[in-house]
Design brief:
This is Diguanylate cyclase. It comes from Sphingomonas spermidinifaciens. The protein has eleven helices and nine strands. The chain is α/β, with parallel strands linked by helices. It is globular and about 50 Å long. The termini are far apart. Bound molecules: ligand C2E and calcium ion (3 copies). One calcium ion binds next to loops.
Length: 276
């Protein structure tokens, strides 16, 4: 397809058109997906580094497209955000995760991703309160994962939002730490209970001489000093568990302890207590 210069240009243009058409088609399909029951939620274990006990699960949305099959959230969440559809979808994930987690044993927590679009909606605390009330889930068992994206339009209203959410008694986690426009100022201002260290830092950190280990170490020291927990994300191999433990990270999440699973399987694993 790229045999000559003119061809390269023409095909590039067609690829872009094709991409835009694909996006538009997904957006159209996304519009009715909630009503058609095409979403479900899966749960990935979060484990205490100390003893490999399962302390919670992260809720991750899945879309089963009737023709395309599973579409990854990496593909459809940005489209949902640009079209505003993330608001009803995100609310559905929150209510579903709260209802399913309320059936899990003990103090096992559920973490739910909250898009910056949802965070900018003044109704969010009301929606969270309603999800807690309807499910009967204790507030301290719900953790909201927020990315640095919420700070892009930093304003007095984001301070008010953090305060309202904390008043409900839910936990707050700063997701994908280190990948965006990280500013240490965010950590000073916002009342996070946990920092999630992005998997790009974990990747390769067990290799001798890798700078990622030094970065993880610095993040853990900072978080611990500020009284926050830390979760290393995307931990895939045993060598990485040992390294993460050595760096003092309090929690581990990744394929090494479990892939995202259905709510019933999560309930069973929570009852067992250990992921190892
Ligand atoms: P995230 O919040 O950083 O979620 C973690 C992602 O890493 C998940 O991908 C998970 O399956 C994957 N992962 C976990 N352990 C490992 C590992 O050991 N190795 C590798 N290679 N990957 C691992 P997933 O489910 O495809 O989700 C991708 C992103 O989509 C999420 O990243 C999050 O940003 C977004 N997302 C998913 N569900 C929701 C949702 O309900 N609401 C919103 N707003 N965003 C969501
Ligand atoms: Ca997350
Ligand atoms: Ca993350
Ligand atoms: Ca991510």
């Amino acid at each position: 397809a790229k045999a000559d210069g003119r061809g390269t240009h023409r095909f590039y243009h067609e690829d872009m058109l094709e991409g835009a058409r694909h996006r538009k088609a997904l957006e159209d399909d996304l519009r009715g997906a909630l009503a058609r029951g095409e979403f479900h939620v899966v749960y990935q274990p979060v484990v205490a580094t100390r003893d490999a006990s399962v302390v919670g699960f992260e809720a991750l949305v899945r879309w089963d497209h009737p023709l395309r099959g599973p579409v990854s959230p990496g593909e459809f969440i940005p489209i949902a955000e640009e079209s505003g559809l993330i608001e009803p979808i995100g609310e559905w994930v929150l209510r579903t995760a709260a209802a399913e987690a309320a059936k899990w044993p003990g103090e096992v927590r559920v973490a739910v991703n909250v898009s910056p679009i949802q965070f900018a909606n003044a109704q969010l605390p009301t929606i969270v309160a309603s999800a807690l009330a309807n499910s009967g889930l204790a507030p301290q068992r719900l953790e909201l994962e927020i990315t640095e994206g919420v700070f892009l339009n930093e304003s007095a209203s984001s301070d008010a939002m953090f305060a309202s959410l904390k008043r409900l008694g839910v936990r707050l986690a700063l997701d994908d730490f280190g990948t965006g426009y990280s500013s240490l100022g965010y950590l000073r201002k916002a009342p996070f209970d946990k920092i999630k260290i992005d998997q790009s830092f974990v990747r390769g950190a067990a290799v001798t001489g890798n700078r990622n280990a030094a970065i993880i170490q610095a993040i853990v020291t900072l978080a611990t000093t500020l009284g926050m927990e830390t979760t290393a994300e995307g931990v895939e191999i045993q060598d990485e568990i040992a390294l993460i433990a050595g760096l003092g990270c309090s929690h581990i999440q990744g394929f090494v302890y479990g892939r995202p699973m259905l709510a019933d399987q999560a309930a069973a694993l929570a009852a067992e207590g250990k992921a190892a």
